From TrEMBL:
Lineage of the organism: Bacteria, Pseudomonadati, Pseudomonadota, Gammaproteobacteria, Alteromonadales
Protein name as catalogued: ABC transporter permease
Main location class: membrane
Top-rank lineage group of the source organism: Bacteria
ABC-2 type transporter transmembrane domain boundaries: 17-367
Membrane topology, record value: Multi-pass membrane protein
Pfam families in the cross-refs: ABC2_membrane_3
Swiss-Prot/TrEMBL keywords: Cell membrane, Membrane, Transmembrane, Transmembrane helix
InterPro entries cross-referenced by the UniProt entry: ABC-2_transporter_component, ABC2_TM
Listed transmembrane segments: 21-37, 179-201, 221-251, 263-284, 291-311, 351-368
Length: 389
C-alpha cells in the first residue's frame, strides 16, 4: 500500500491539471462565486415602465418605483417595445400604467395595473414581483388617503379603513434576506461535488490500458481504487471544511449547530460520490465518455437541491434524478444543522439515507472483473509493461 501511495503521489505531481483541481481551482471557484453574491441582495434590476396615462398620478407611481433600491425603472413608449425588451432580457419585468388611471382612481373605479415578470429567473422574478407590488401599493395608499380625507373622513380612521389587516412576514433563518447565506452554501457544495468528481475520474483514467481498441484494467485494480479513495478523500474534505470555515467563521454567517457534524456528512457524501463515479467509470471504460457523462449528471446539482424550487413540485423524473445526487442528500443535513441546530444523532439518521448507494457495489464488482478478463496470450510486451507499471 505504501508503494501504491507513492505511485499515486508521483502521478499527481506529474499532472498539472490534476494538481490544479486539488489546489487553486477550488479556492478560486469558491471565492469567485462568493464575490458574485457578496452584495447580499440584488439591486437596480431593470424594469420596463409603460406609462399610457401620462398623468400626475402615473408619474408619482413611477417615482415610487424608482425609490425602491431593487428596481431601476426604464421608460418605454408602448407595450410591444417593453415585451420585446423582456424577450431580449434587457429588462426582467414590466409595469403598464393604463389609460385614464388617474380618472378611474379619483372616481372610485378599480383600474388594472399590469405587472409581468420573467419567471425563468426564479429568484429575480419572485423578488421583483413582491417589490413591484409593495412599491405600487405604497403609492396607491397615499392616493387613497388623500381621497378619504377630501371626502371628510377622520384622519385617525383613514389607515384602518385602507388596511384593516396588516401582514408581517419574517424570515426565520434569514432575517436580512441576505442571498449570501441563502444561495452561496448550496452553490459551493454543488461546485465542490463537481470538482471532486473530476479529481476522482481523472485519477481513475490513468489506470486504463488500451489493447486492440479496447480499454482494460490492471489486475491490481481493487488496490488502486482503495488507494485513490484513501488518497483523495482527505484532500477534498479539506476543501469542504474550508467552505464551512469561510462561510460560518470568516464571513460570520449564522450557524445554529456544530460544523463538525457537517464534516461527517461531507465524508458520507464523498463516499456516495465515489460509488457513483466508479459504477459509471467501470461500466464505460472510456475516459472522455466517463467525464462527459459524470459532468452531465452532476452539473445541475444546485437546481435539484430544493433550495430555490420545492422538491415536491418537481417532475417525477427530476425527483428520481435528485435521488442519485449525493449533494441532494447532504443539503438536508446542512440545512438541519445550520438552521435548526440539530445534533449528531439526527445527522447520523440522515446519513443513513445513503444506504441506497451501496446497491451500486455489485455493479462495480461485475464491471471491474469483466474488464480484467484479458487473454494473457494476446497481450504484447508493451501492454504487460504498462500493466505492471
Amino acid at each position: 500500500m505504501t508503494e501504491l501511495f507513492k505511485r499515486e503521489f508521483n502521478a499527481l505531481w506529474h499532472s498539472p491539471w490534476q494538481l490544479a483541481l486539488i489546489s487553486y481551482i477550488p479556492l478560486i471557484g469558491v471565492l469567485a462565486l462568493w464575490w458574485l453574491f457578496s452584495a447580499g441582495l440584488p439591486r437596480q434590476l431593470p424594469v420596463a415602465v409603460v406609462d399610457v396615462d401620462n398623468s400626475q398620478i402615473s408619474r408619482m407611481l413611477t417615482r415610487q418605483l424608482a425609490a425602491n433600491a431593487v428596481i431601476a425603472p426604464q421608460s418605454y413608449a408602448n407595450e410591444a417595445q417593453a415585451i420585446e425588451a423582456m424577450r431580449q432580457t434587457q429588462v426582467y419585468a414590466m409595469v403598464v400604467l393604463p389609460y385614464q388611471l388617474k380618472k378611474d382612481l379619483l372616481t372610485a373605479k378599480q383600474p388594472t395595473i399590469d405587472i409581468r415578470y420573467n419567471s425563468q429567473f426564479l429568484l429575480v422574478g419572485k423578488l421583483l414581483s413582491s417589490q413591484l407590488q409593495l412599491s405600487l401599493a405604497e403609492g396607491l395608499t397615499q392616493i387613497g388617503q388623500q381621497r378619504l380625507l377630501l371626502n371628510g373622513a377622520n384622519k385617525a380612521t383613514v389607515d384602518v379603513s385602507l388596511s384593516p389587516i396588516t401582514n408581517q412576514t419574517t424570515a426565520l433563518f434569514n432575517r436580512n434576506n441576505n442571498y449570501v447565506g441563502f444561495l452561496v452554501p448550496p452553490i459551493l457544495i454543488a461546485l465542490w461535488q463537481l470538482l471532486s468528481m473530476l479529481v476522482f475520474v481523472n485519477s481513475l483514467n490513468q489506470e486504463l490500458i488500451l489493447y486492440q481498441n479496447r480499454y482494460y484494467f490492471p489486475k491490481q485494480i481493487w488496490a488502486l481504487i482503495a488507494t485513490k479513495i484513501l488518497f483523495y478523500s482527505p484532500i477534498m474534505l479539506l476543501h469542504g471544511g474550508f467552505i464551512l470555515l469561510w462561510l460560518y467563521h470568516y464571513l460570520g454567517l449564522p450557524a445554529a449547530g456544530a460544523l463538525v457534524d457537517l464534516m461527517l456528512a461531507q465524508l458520507a457524501m464523498l463516499m456516495a460520490l465515489w460509488l457513483m463515479v466508479l459504477v459509471i467509470f467501470t461500466g464505460m471504460r472510456d475516459s472522455a465518455r466517463s467525464v462527459s457523462f459524470c459532468t452531465a449528471l452532476f452539473a445541475p446539482a444546485f437546481a435539484f437541491m430544493g433550495i430555490t424550487f420545492p422538491v415536491n413540485d418537481m417532475p417525477l423524473l427530476a425527483q428520481w434524478w435528485r435521488l442519485v445526487m449525493p449533494s441532494s442528500h447532504y443539503i438536508d443535513s446542512h440545512v438541519s444543522v445550520i438552521s435548526y441546530g440539530v445534533e449528531l444523532p439526527h445527522v447520523l439518521g440522515q446519513i443513513s439515507n445513503y444506504w441506497g448507494f451501496l446497491l451500486l457495489l455489485p455493479f462495480i464488482v461485475f464491471f471491474a472483473n469483466k474488464a480484467k478478463d484479458v487473454p494473457k496470450t494476446d497481450l504484447t510486451s508493451s501492454d504487460v509493461n504498462q500493466e505492471v507499471s
